[in-house]
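Posting here for the record, re: iron/sulfur cluster.
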Amino acid sequence: MSHAPRTLLINPTITSRGSARFPLSLLNLAATLDQAGSSRIIDGNVDRDFVALTLQTLASERFDAVGVSVMGGPQIAPSIEVSKAIREHSPAMPIVWGGYFPTLYTDTALGAPYVDYAVRGQGEESLVELVAALSGQGSGVASIGGLSWKRDGELVHNPSRRFSRGDQSLVLPYEKLGDPRRYLARTFLGRRTAAHQAALGCRFRCTFCGVAAMFGGATALPTVQRLERELSYLKYELGADSIQFFDHNFFDREAEMIPLLEVMAKLEMPWWCYARADALLNLSESTWELVRKSRLRMAYIGAESPSGAMLKEIRKGTRPDQTLQVAELCRRHGVIPELSFMVAPPVNTEEETELTFEFIRELKQINPASEIIVYVYTPLPESSRHEKDRGKRPSTPLLDLHGEPVVFPATPEEWTQQRWVDYACHADAPWLDDRMRRRIRDFVTVLRCRYPTAQDLRSPRWAKRGLSAMAAWRYRQRRYDRPWELDLANRLVRLRLPQVSGI
Ligand code: B12
Ligand code: SF4
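Prediction output follows.
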């Protein structure tokens, strides 16, 4: 007999204690599921004992399916743990994995005995149709777009869904998180910063980026009404005083951005977002005036490389001179550019890395307030690119330190090995030797001591000044090697690194 479907949604622990942000993926899924059924959210970033809580919840309430949100890197181990526990205690419960990991590595995720379904890409419609099918309504699973499943042990991939621009009338059910105010965090933006997503997707298709693999070059901005309604709720109902936009890429074409910036100028909440150098350079002076009024404090810009050839190879679509120009432009307008770089590519590893260090120095001269993030270049395997891009301009084959082809993990368990977690976190790659790792670490140590991040609220000002003075000679003379005295001082002060998680 059919009944209104009920789904348990789980966000396995990924952040450190006390730094949970709204689990936006689950809030969006819950909002859609609740239109024809109901759902409950367990957030492992808040309920640290989320595996036990999941088992208790399944034992005391009826559900038709459990959906687990899985991002590559440190979230895989807790995702495996909770899925295995569910399989053991409720063997008949369908387990669905969704998010970046199953989208990019579908066969790897679905091959696991504790994953029954993998949803690729945006999950709202596929999950609603899947739980309807599982609760005896709707058509069978074979017709659900974006779904991968198992038929007699064989993996079946239904056709993908088209990009969905999102339901503009959707209201996120924050109340499902208990008191949503506990997700507001003290950051350099304000005392109560909220995480929010306004625009979906990104119109670019950089070969290394998970967003391109998820959206295949599609993007959609929110309507003015939706943005105003959502930000007003965060400001007036929850008391948020600043916003961190988890959009894939916030700034789009100028004409379409103006009405959105007007909303933000009206609400006057300091904000942080992802942006591209070219988009910011294309804004007119009057739009920059609006940006200033809207109180944009920091923009995370993927600078990636100082090499035009590498930027072409990864299809970034921006040039190194634009990175330099945007640093200057941001300085003039009082916005801190948070520029991320990918060093140590598999070819010309050392040369590209040293060039990047020099380029970072040039940027620091143009705009000393620029925040710099140094990642190791860890491209996605060819198989995980968006189906529209697969096989097109294949990237250079990846070889390890011994010249052997890099073989990516074939199971979620293998992805939990430290070297693969590091790969997913852009912290290490199989073609790096210890000397190169050390060189990168030493440069980053000297740089972050010389220029402590504005996002570090914990270290006292005197400590930051002291470290900066200690690091000055090394930075000036490019003596990055073995900065033992900075390591020692750092152990006492524990300076933070600027990073995506932010703030
Ligand atoms: C917030 C965030 C985080 C948060 C955690 C979020 C959480 N789960 O609590 C933090 C800061 C901890 C984090 C960490 C990392 N992140 Co992160 N993160 C993001 C960010 C900015 C937003 C994600 C988000 O909330 N989006 C909004 C929601 C609505 O979209 P969504 O999550 O994609 O969900 C949709 C679908 O994926 C799907 N879906 C998701 N879950 C589920 C579950 C089910 C059951 C179903 C059916 C569907 C489904 O449906 C949803 C609605 O359409 C994205 C970039 C972006 N803008 O998306 C990067 C991103 C997801 N992160 C990424 C990465 C790599 C990381 C790291 C592993 C590494 C790094 N250096 O950043 C680190 C780990 C660092 C560490 N050492 O701990 C990559 C993933 C790409 C990839 N190659 O796998 C992204 C895309 C950034 C990027 N451009 O590279 N991250
Ligand atoms: S512009 Fe940024 S978000 Fe868009 S595909 Fe490139 S790296 Fe990813």
